[in-house]
Automatic annotation (TrEMBL):
It comes from Bacillus licheniformis (strain ATCC 14580 / DSM 13 / JCM 2505 / CCUG 7422 / NBRC 12200 / NCIMB 9375 / NCTC 10341 / NRRL NRS-1264 / Gibson 46). InterPro entries: ATPase_P-typ_cation-transptr_C, ATPase_P-typ_cation-transptr_N, ATPase_P-typ_cyto_dom_N, ATPase_P-typ_P_site, ATPase_P-typ_TM_dom_sf, ATPase_P-typ_transduc_dom_A_sf, ATPase_P-type_domA, Cation_transp_ATPase_P-type. It is an enzyme of class 7 (translocase). The keyword Ion transport applies. Residues 2-76 form the Cation-transporting P-type ATPase N-terminal domain. Signal peptide: none annotated. Pfam families: Cation_ATPase, Cation_ATPase_C, Cation_ATPase_N, E1-E2_ATPase. SUPFAM superfamilies: Calcium ATPase, transduction domain A (SSF81653), Calcium ATPase, transmembrane domain M (SSF81665), HAD-like (SSF56784), Metal cation-transporting ATPase, ATP-binding domain N (SSF81660). Its EC number is 7.2.2.10. One of its GO terms (biological process) is proton transmembrane transport. GO terms for cellular component: plasma membrane. The chain crosses the membrane at residues 48-71, 77-96, 244-262, 268-296, 691-713, 719-738, 759-787, 793-811, 831-850, 862-886. This is P-type Ca(2+) transporter.
Length: 890
């Protein structure tokens, strides 16, 4: 028998599972072992060995190796072995850097992997979709990606888009009934859902029948196309720059060699010096360090509750000039409580907070019994009936499973005695039209115990008022006259201006057998009443909005909520300046894209908008040259999330579709987390600038000292092995430590960076050249002074030059920590940097003073008195320019 032909009993028998309890954890564990994880096979990975050898395929490194081998054959054993050892250590470092970068990118993928709601041991739990096994009972709703192949057992208006599998882009509607048919194609299997397809509407429950490579998707896709983390703009720019730098370094090296030869140095030693210099001066490690810095930053961001899905977002974050954020749940807590009920001109207050059914009703300050107030009862009961959420009590705690707006309605109804049990006993739901934020309402068709049917609709009051022809006053049904409409509107405004979220309830009796479609059901309604609920702002949001403003970032609130409610909350949050404008969905509809762009810069709140509007809003801001971050959670939000420069989705309430479209996920759905992410994004970029500046200035210094010496007909100020040592130790460790530097105090007081900004923008180029030049001059100065004192002791002078170069770089590294001046920063703040600098100094002293290493590195112990010269000379490059030329006030 085929899957689609089975009745529910057969299905459950064959898959050995239970529809109310699901599998036990033990059984699931066993099946996971038997069937393997629910994953499609991935493409090949580079092996560790291959990655290791790839470290040496660099052209200059190969030349150096060849040159070293030659020098080995010529009898320079010590030099040859030392150089090879250094190249080897360099390769190992590069290997670990790339490994680390790769690992953390993989870890990221894990983190943003989809979760599935599955029934285990009788409870609905969320597990990573790769842990699904055959027999698992899973539940899904609009916006979810189906985790495994399923045979459906329950559906509610379910529609699934299966284009990934069938190529058909229109969603197909699904139902759970078995049917007989041989020779059916995938697209006809209406009672099955397939791994990787997308739920576009409704919800359902199914039993897993195929996982991993045994799923329909696994059968057609042997290999998962890896998403491939695209390079960030900076990485691409650096790649370009790298090519230029290679050419420049080679050119200068050639110049050094040529000058040396002309001045009488022998060709062979100049060749070896030249190649070493080229290896040192070409910043081949830069891309790897950039990746490490990015991924370290990304890990810091995870600790601050944001997950980067696309690496380029890390950089773009620092450029953001507008954040368009959802209100409900992102700026507010999404912990709703009904506080007001209005019906037919009367208003009741409800006490209590949260989802506990503890609370009472009052009217004009006096306590009342709900059972004596028919209209109140009706509003509450209908709010609980037209509801797709539930509240679960466990160990005295009340947990919501579903939408907070609906949770608030359930709780309010319970306070009046309408428990789940009461509702289930007295009413039967015939049909459900789920809520969607474009319609802004939800409806059910209900049958009561006497067999009478009616439609209950709840939703945005202004929308329901338009759909209502009648209203209830004093429990009597009457025409919704102008006066009644005005009265209702006034009540709505009173509630909304107190920042309350509002919901209206309406109903309509229908024939006993009737089952009208959506459009018909939601028209000609009878308006019953309004509910007002509080949704307190998240306490940290106000400060976050202020900090964003100081950072040159404008925060825009986008919500489906009522204009007045939205305005009241925006004012509370300090988001709406006195002259700021509020725009509603209707106005958005009427404006053309160009007209919107013209005024959009003055708008701070968009209310009563549908997800479809978001795309128009993002585009308008972008047309005005802004870099826009946009949040969203539903299926319909995906286009806007994709269009935004930084698409942000919600970790808790977000659908898989929204998450997949986004480049950043907020683990806690919190607006303040966006601010932290932007701050981190800015910091990561600044840190990358810091070590680019450090590395390049160091390299400029190294090349120039050699070049000047050759031009002045001096001996080599540094021997090849020393140059390589500097490249390995002094350039390596401190640069990585700069990548972990703390942000400067004012990162969130600067304007957003322009995305077009080049690597050398904001004075970086000048800093590199000026500091590099001075490092070269200082090193040469120290060398010449000692050499002229005693030209016999060349190795001594070279050791002094070596020490000066190293120290000059290690002092300069502290200057690189600030855009302004070295004096602006506490040098003891970054312990990694302190560690890197101290260990570099230590290693330098070892190389100079440890006798067995002296012949290898051609060093001679330096006399105490000469350290004065060395320290003095090496301080010059940093302190000569610090506090002067470039100490601009921001
Ligand atoms: P937002 O999430 O930005 O607050 P929504 O699109 O969720 O906006 O809601 C818009 C309006 O629809 C709300 O102001 C409320 O009146 C109504 N509404 C929200 N949730 C539901 C629901 N589950 N059922 C019926 N109406 C709802
Ligand atoms: Mg909502």
């Amino acid at each position: 028998m085929k899957w689609h032909e089975m009745g529910q009993t057969e299905l459950l028998n064959i898959t050995k599972t239970s529809i109310d309890k699901g599998l036990t954890e033990k059984e699931a564990g066993k099946r996971l072992e038997r069937h393997g994880t629910n994953e499609l096979q991935e493409g090949e990975k580079t092996s560790a060995v291959a990655l290791f050898f790839s470290q040496f395929k660099d052209f200059m490194v190969l030349v150096l190796l060849a040159a070293t081998l030659i020098s080995g054959f010529l009898g320079e054993y010590i030099d040859a072995i030392a150089i090879i050892a250094i190249i080897f250590v360099n390769g190992i470092l590069g290997f670990f850097q790339e490994r680390r970068a790769e690992r953390s990118l993989e870890a990221l993928k894990e983190l943003s992997a989809p979760q599935v709601a599955v029934l285990r041991e009788g409870n609905w739990v969320k597990i990573p979709s790769k842990e699904l096994v055959p027999g698992d009972v899973v539940r899904f709703a609009s916006g979810d990606r189906i985790g495994a192949d399923l045979r459906l057992v329950e559906t509610k208006s379910l529609e699934i888009e299966e284009s990934a599998l069938t190529g058909e882009s229109l969603p197909v509607s699904k139902q759970a009934d078995a049917f007989q048919a041989s020779d059916v194609s995938l697209g006809d299997l209406k009672n099955m859902a397939f791994m990787g397809t997308l739920v576009t509407r409704g919800s359902g429950i199914g039993v897993v029948i195929g996982t991993g490579m045994n799923s329909a998707m696994g059968k057609i896709a042997d290999m998962l196309e890896s998403a491939g983390n695209t390079a960030t703009p900076l990485q691409r720019r650096l790649e370009e720059l790298g090519k230029i730098l290679i050419v420049a370094a080679l050119f200068l090296t050639l110049l050094v060699v040529a000058a040396g030869v002309i001045q009488g140095h022998d060709l062979y030693s100049m060749f070896l010096a030249g190649v070493s210099l080229a290896v040192a001066a070409i910043p081949e490690g830069l891309p790897a360090i950039v990746t490490v810095a990015l991924s370290l930053g990304v890990q810091r961001m995870i600790r601050q509750k944001s997950i980067v899905r696309k690496l380029p977002a890390v950089e773009t974050l620092g450029c953001a000039s507008i954040i368009c954020s959802d209100k409900t749940g992102t700026m507010t807590q999404n912990k709703m409580t009904v506080t007001h009920v209005w019906s037919g001109g009367k208003i009741w207050n409800v006490s209590g907070i949260g989802y506990e059914p503890e609370g009472s009703f009052s009217m004009n300050g006096r306590d009342v019994q709900a059972k004596h107030h028919k209209p109140l009862q009706q509003v509450l009961l209908f709010g609980a009936l037209c509801n797709s959420s539930s509240i679960i009590e466990k160990d005295g705690e009340f947990r919501l499973d579903g939408d907070p707006t609906e949770g608030a309605l359930l709780t309010a109804a319970r306070k009046a005695g309408f428990t789940d049990k009461y509702v289930d006993e007295h009413f039967k739901i015939i049909e459900e039209f789920p809520f969607d934020s474009t319609r802004k309402m939800m409806s059910v068709i209900v049958e009561d115990k006497s067999g009478k049917r009616f439609v209950i609709t709840k939703g945005a009051p202004d929308v329901l008022m338009k759909r209502s022809s009648h209203t209830l006053t004093e429990e009597k049904r009457e025409i919704f006259t102008k006066e009644r409409l005005a009265e209702t509107s006034a009540a709505l405004e009173t509630l909304a201006s107190q920042a309350l979220r509002t919901i209206a309830v309406a109903y309509k009796p229908i024939k006993d057998t009737e089952n009208p479609p959506l459009e018909k059901a939601e028209s000609g309604l009878t308006f019953i009443g309004l509910l007002g609920m509080i949704d307190p702002p998240r306490p940290e949001v106000k400060t976050a909005i202020k900090e964003c403003r100081e950072a040159g970032i404008k925060t825009v609130m986008i919500t489906g909520d009522h204009v007045i409610t939205a305005t009241a909350i925006a004012k509370d949050l300090g988001l709406l300046p006195p002259r700021g404008k509020v725009m509603d969905g209707q106005m958005l509809n009427e404006l053309s894209q160009e007209e919107l762009a013209e005024i959009v810069d003055d708008v701070y709140v968009f209310a009563r908008v549908s997800p479809e509007h978001k795309l128009k809003i993002v585009t308008a801001y972008q047309e005005n040259g802004h870099i826009v971050a946009m949040t969203g959670d539903g299926v319909n939000d995906a286009p806007a999330i994709k269009q935004a420069d930084i698409g942000i989705s919600m970790g808790i309430t977000g659908t898989d579709v929204a998450k997949e479209a986004s480049s950043l996920i907020l683990v806690d759905d919190n607006f303040a987390t966006i601010k932290s992410a932007i701050k981190e994004g800015r910091n990561i970029y600044e840190n990358i600038r810091k070590f680019i500046r450090y590395l390049l200035a160091s390299n400029v210094g190294e090349i120039l000292v050699m070049l000047f010496a050759m031009l002045l007909a001096l001996p080599l100020p540094l021997v090849p092995i020393q140059i390589l040592w500097v490249n390995l130790v002094t350039d390596g460790l401190p640069a990585m430590a700069l990548g972990m530097d703390q942000p400067e105090d004012d990162v969130m007081q600067r304007k957003p960076r322009s995305p077009k900004e080049g690597v050398f923008a904001r004075g970086l180029g000048w800093k590199v050249v000026s500091r590099g030049f001075l490092i070269g001059i200082a090193t040469l100065g120290a060398f010449m002074f000692i050499y002229n004192r005693n030209p016999e002791a060349l190795e001594y002078a070279q050791t002094v030059a070596f020490a000066t170069l190293v120290l000059a770089q290690l002092i300069h590294v502290f200057d690189c920590r600030s855009e302004r001046s070295i004096f602006d920063r506490n040098p003891f703040e970054n312990i990694y940097l302190l560690g890197a600098v101290l260990s570099s100094i230590l290693l330098m002293l070892v190389v100079i003073y440890y006798p067995p290493l002296q012949p290898i590195f051609h060093t001679v112990p330096i006399l105490m008195a000469d350290w004065l010269l060395i320290v003095g000379m090496s301080a010059i490059p940093t302190f000569l320019l610090a506090g002067s030329l470039l100490t601009r006030k921001k």
